[in-house]
Amino acid sequence: MKIIAPSVLSADFGHLAQDLEMINRSKADWLHIDVMDGTFVPNISFGFPLMEPMRKYCKKPLDVHLMIVHPEKYVERFCDAGAWSVGFHLEAVTDPMPVLDLIKAKGVRTCLTINPDIDVKRLVPYLDKVDMVLLMSVFAGFGGQKFIPETMDKIRFIREEIDYRGLNTLIEIDGGVNTQNAAELFAAGADALVAGSAVFNAPDPEEAIRKMKGQP
Ligand code: DX5
Ligand code: ZN
Fold it and tell me: pTM for the whole thing?
């Protein structure tokens, strides 16, 4: 699967509807939504007030990435606000299972995420309990950072685990993805790539999305 999920964090919020129309026209598969609370990460992005226009104007599934403490307090509201998938960080909770159950009870897809300094092996016990795992390839908090090359081996490791166990769990990569490294990331076993600045700062964002998907 070669899924591209542009991150709305890099969009122009003064012209959000136009940027979302571009996403609708493009070959993008999902819209990635980065929610930051200023506590789990040293940055604050946006929250519920933007879910409404995104649901209204965006025809692609909304892939919500929560970079917040206490995700258990908010996951249901993001489900109700129209999320297609809700992800939160493993390192933000003591036990992810009750939080996953809240999302599942809403009929929404689940995603468990880790920052680059968290041992990728910690995801293994949950591979059969989530729809997707998201490996951060930069430290969560800001768009426009440089891809951390060590992520490649982590993708291969998780890919092997998933295939060995015959699971359908998707692998998503987030941070520093661009038209140069997308093919290599898919080849290593990623299913979905998040790209913020490489899409929205490109002279032709639709072309950038096509290139990342390996399409002419
Ligand atoms: C970082 C966010 C990413 C970010 C990606 O905390 O989770 O989704 O927007 O931005 P780029 O693609 O510019 O690295
Ligand atoms: Zn993200």
Answer: 0.98
